[in-house]
# Entry
Amino acid sequence: MSPVGDLEGGVWTVDPGYSSITFKIRHLGMRDYRAGFRDVHGTLDAEAGTLELSVQLDNLDLSQPDIRERLLSAEFLDAAGYPRVQFVSSGLVADEGSRDVTVPGNLTIHGVTRPVQGAGRIGIPGPHLLTGKEQITFELAATIDRREFGIAWQEELPEGGLTLSNEVTLEAVLELALDS
# Structure
């Protein structure tokens, strides 16, 4: 039995075509701005109870070229200097019989590594409709303070308040297949 309930032991690999990592941040104190990354890579080792995820920043999926360019610049993510975001868990914690998990680990953004704790849910394993391989879904979210990762740009609004919240919510929606 794996550390995650009835999940079959072994290594599960993220399917980059069916997985995404998104972020949301409060903008102008009024609404959440959302964007995300495609081509997510990673593995879930069910026996060891560990999860590793990474994404190349140049895979930022954003339809506004000027905002995309600014987010990838040295003022924000500095994709030229730090081209990858990575998460490596130190374990997966699930209560007996529950698919809800807590995932502590280290997140590296902008060349800075900090401990974070995500929370999420692992789906029920079943065969993939096209490949027949055993698959699962895994949804995971964590909230970070972007300043802790060296992303500190800020502008005060004319009537008070901040242009961007310092809190950023990261969400991973993953589909994984059991390696044979």
